[in-house]
Amino acid sequence: MIWAMRGGKGVTPMHRLRQQLGIFLAFVVLLASLTPAAQSYFQLPTTQRFSVGEELKLNINFPEQFLQKINFYVHSKDGNKLLYEEKLKEEQKISYKQSWPIAVEPGKYHIDMKLFGFIPLKSVSIDVMPKIQVVPGGHSIGVLMRSKGVMVVGYSPIVNEQGEKKYPAKEAGVQVGDLILAINDQSITTDGEAASIIDKLGFENKPIKIQVKRKNKILNLTLHPQYCSETKRYRVGLYIRDSAAGVGTLTFYEPKSGIYGALGHIIADPETSNQIKLGEGKIINASIQGINQGEKGKPGEKIGTFIDNTNLSGNISKNSQLGIIGKLNFPISNSLYPNMVPVAFANQVKEGPAEILTVVEGEKIEKFDILIEKVNVQQRPDTKGLVIRITDPRLLSITGGIIQGMSGSPIIQNGQLVGAVTHVFINDPTRGYGVLAEWMLYEAGILQLNETAVSKGAYAPFFYNNICRILL
Q1: Is 224 one of the catalytic residues?
Q2: Measured in Å, how far apart are the chain's first and last C-alpha atoms?
Q3: pTM of the model as a whole
Q4: Is the pLDDT of residue 463 over 50?
Q5: Are residues 47 and 39 in contact, defined by beta-carbon separation less than 8 angstroms?
Q6: Beta carbons within 8 Å of 162's beta carbon, 6+ residues apart
Q7: How far apart are CA 186 and CA 172, in angstroms?
Q8: Minimal CA–CA distance to 372: which of 423, 294, 434, 439?
Q9: CA-to-CA separations, 458 to 56, 364, 441, 471, in angstroms, rounded
Q10: Residues 146, 151, 155, 156: is their CA dihedral positive or negative?
Q11: Most Cβ neighbours (<10 Å): which of 27, 103, 245, 419?
Q12: Which of 113-122, 140-149, 223-232, 306-315 shows the highest mean pLDDT?
C-alpha cells in the first residue's frame, strides 16, 4: 500500500478516520442549521420590545424535548418589577411551558437562555415600553413633493442649426440620477428656473458651472449650452424633474405629538429609482374616482383627485425608506375605530387573519379581510416584514388585489395596528409585502419619545403613477 505523504509522514488509517468523522459531523451540523428549529434560534432577535402588562415570552420554534432542557432567567438590572404568580419580583427562573412573568412597568429587562440550567445559549435584551396608541389611518391622501434641486432623469439631444445632435451635459460628465443643486452659484429649486438660467447664460455666450450631488458626493462640472433649433433656446441636453405627486394612504396619527406616518416606503423617481431628496412637501385629502384593476405582470392603481379644502392636511418632514413622516395641521379621526388602537410590536404579530383599512370609492374608509402569511424576523428596519394575501372577495372584485395608491393602508390584527401595506407581487397581485408598525413608529421618532419618557420616569404603571412603477 502506498500512503500519501503529509509533512514527510504517511497518513495513517486512524488519521483518515478522524478526517471522515470530522466531515460527517460538519455535514450533520450543516443539516441541523437548515431545520426550522435552528433557524428559529439563529433568527431570534437579540433585542425585542414588549408593552407594559404583556408576558415577556420569547417565540422559539424548538422541539419540545429540547425546550424541556432549557431554563429561562428573566431579570432586570434596574430593579424594575415583574409580576409572577401574583407576586412582584425582580427576577424569575422558568421553563418554557410555564407561565411567563409580566412586566408591570417600563424599563430594560433581560432573558438568559441556559441549557441544563448552566450552559449559556443566548441572551435577549428586552425593552418594555408604555402602551402606544394611535388613530389608525386608511384615509386616502394626495402627496405633493418638491425636491432639493432638480433631478436629472434622462438625456435629450440638442439639434443644432447644422442638424447635428449634441449632448453638452452628458459630455461634461452629468449622469442620470444626479441632483442639480446650483448653476453658476445660484441655487435651483424648479425645472423652469433651471431652463431660464441656462438660456440666459447661453445667450450671453457664457460657460456654465453646474453643482451636482451624486449619492453623497458634491461635484462641480463646467459645460457650454448650445442653441437648439427645435426649441429656439439654449439648452444642455437633459430631461429634469423638480416635483412629484401621487395618491397614497395614511397609516397612523399620534395625537400627542401630532405626527403621522404614511405609505410605508420611500418615494423614488420612476426614471432613476433614486430617492427624491425632500425640499418641501405636503399631504392633502384625496377622493378616489376610479380603479384600474391589477393583473398578473401589471399593477393596478387608484385614480384620485386632490381636495385642498378639508381638515386632512399636513407637512412632509421626512421621505424615508419606511414612508413619509410629518405633522398634521388638525386632529383627525377614524369612524371605524372611534377609539385609538394600541400598536403591536413585532413579537406580537402572528400569522393568520387580519384586515386592512383603505378607500376604494370617494373618501369612505372600509375594512377588508386579509391573511398574514408570514412574519419575517428582522434585526433592522425594512419594508418587507410581512407577507400578506388579500382574501376579501369584494376587494378582489374591485381592485384585483393590491394596487398603487393602497400603500400605507394600515393592517389591523386583534384590535392592534401591526403594519402597513407596502408592495405588490407583480406576478400575483393578490399578495404582497407589509412593513411592521414598530419600524414606522421608530422612523417617526415616536418610540424614541417614549424611551426618553421611560428613562426620565415620566410614565404611568404609492407606489404612485408618476413616482415609481414597481412599488405601490
Answers
A1: no
A2: 70
A3: 0.72
A4: no
A5: no
A6: none
A7: 19
A8: 434
A9: 22, 38, 19, 40
A10: positive
A11: 419
A12: 223-232
Among the options 147, 265, 269, 409, which is catalytic?
265
Q: From its phi and psi, is residue 232 left (phi > 0), alpha (psi between -120 and 50) or beta?
A: left
Residue labelled with grid coordinates 435629450: 156
Is the pLDDT higher at 449 or at 248? 248
Start-end of H helices in 147-213: 168-172, 191-203
Closest CA to 41 of 96, 100, 117: 96
Q: State which amino acid sits at residue 71.
A: N
**Helix (H), strand (E) at residue 36:** helix 36-43
**Inter-residue contact 190 to 175 (CB < 8 Å):** no
Residue 172 corresponds to which cell in the numbers above?
A: 461634461
**Averaged pLDDT score across all residues of the chain:** 83
Which one, of 387, 447, 435, lies nearest residue 265 by Cα? 435
Asked if pLDDT for residue 421 goes beyond 90, the answer is yes
Helix, strand, coil percentages for the chain (3-state, nearest 5)? 15, 45, 40
d(CA 257, CA 457): 19
Q: Kindly indicate the confidence band of residue 334, based on its pLDDT and cuts at 50, 70 and 90.
A: very high
Residue 110 among the catalytic residues: no
265 is a catalytic site residue:
yes
- Exactly one of 112, 191, 382, 392 is catalytic; which is it? 392
What are the DSSP calls for 38-53, one per residue? HHHHHHS-SEEEEETT
**pLDDT, average across residues 119-136:** 88
Catalytic residue among 76, 147, 320, 407: 407
Is the confidence at residue 10, as pLDDT, over 60?
no
